[in-house]
Specification:
Blueprint (H helix, E strand, L loop, with lengths): L3 E12 L2 E7 L10 E7 L13 E5 L8 E7 L6 H7 L6 E9 L8 E8 L3 H13 L4 E9 L19 E6 L2 H11 L6 E5 L2 H13 L7 E3 L6 H4 L7
Parallel strand pairs: 7-8, 7-10, 8-9, 10-11
Antiparallel strand pairs: 1-2, 1-6, 2-5, 3-4, 3-6
The protein binds flavin-adenine dinucleotide.
Length: 238
């Protein structure tokens, strides 16, 4: 495993509690859309064993052509030790990244693609949408549905409906509105449904989709293959 040490080159305040940390791309570091990485703070490997309190999984919210590795996260007033330290970091400070992999690359199979997310989960989908908008081939339509009770919707420059590109986005603020829209989307029995959010959010979405007759192979989660059986059985009582 190679640990890449890099520096913060910019901090973007996306919303009152959401920031994107832009990191320099280290030589040889590669990623594809939907990738997540291990994002670690200085000191994480100082002892005999890695200090997990200083490491988090984070999606990369940019594509390589943007020339920075974007990490988007919510920093609440009361937060973990990890985020308390992160909050105080500045441009020029060091970050380590390692073990980078995408569970959710964009699949081009001439289908409608539904991107279902909660809050900063949208960050995982930003690179998929950028990739699609740059090259729309072999996808019928992309539909993004995001729920964020803060009402401060993220990446609104990119997540704007573009009828000429068969791209539709909806932001909602309440669960009732979200699941009503989801039930409507689930009438497409051929679509591909990507879901990103908390485990509870995944399970609730999967339940709605499976009750509507969507099969496990049409549901794509940001989980390692070994974790998928915990979420995707064809048993509708999940
Ligand atoms: C594949 C993958 C990709 C991911 N991608 C991202 C991503 O792109 N962005 C992202 O932000 N996360 C991402 N995550 C989740 C991430 O790894 C963290 O689990 C998440 O951000 C929570 O961070 P935290 O544990 O530092 O807690 P925090 O966010 O600080 O806290 C979690 C909750 O606990 C509460 N809390 C924390 N400390 C206290 C306290 N002392 N007192 C009271 N309440 C407290 C907070 O209010 C909050 O509600 C990803 C996870 C996976 C598996």
């Amino acid at each position: 495993m190679h640990i890449y040490w890099t520096k913060i080159n910019k901090i973007v305040q996306e919303a009152s509690q959401v920031r994107t940390y832009m990191l320099d791309c280290p030589e040889g570091f590669k990623w594809e859309e939907g990738a997540h990485t291990h994002f670690a703070l200085v000191g994480f490997n100082a002892g005999d064993r890695p200090n997990r309190k200083l490491i988090r999984h984070m999606s990369i919210s940019t594509l390589p052509y943007e020339r920075s590795i974007g990490i988007t996260t919510r920093l609440k007033d009361q937060c973990s030790e990890f985020k308390t330290i992160l909050k105080d970091l500045e441009v020029g400070d060091d970050i380590a990244i390692f073990k980078t992999h995408s569970n959710v690359p964009l699949k081009r199979g001439n289908k409608n693609v539904y991107l279902l997310s909660s809050g900063v989960g949208l960050a995982t989908f930003r690179p998929l949408v950028l990739k699609y908008l740059n090259q729309t081939a072999d996808i019928k339509h992309i539909y993004s549905l995001n729920i964020d009770s803060s009402r401060e919707f993220l990446f609104s420059d990119i997540f704007q409906s573009a009828p000429d590109k068969n791209f539709t986005t909806r932001f909602v603020t309440d669960r009732h509105g979200y699941y009503n829209k989801l039930k409507h989307l689930a009438t497409d029995k051929e679509g591909l449904f990507y879901i990103v959010g908390s485990d509870e959010f995944l399970l609730q979405n999967i339940k709605v989709l499976q009750l509507a007759g969507i099969k496990s192979e049409q549901i794509i989660l940001d989980k390692h293959a070994s974790q998928l059986p915990e979420f995707l059985s064809d048993d509708m009582s999940v």
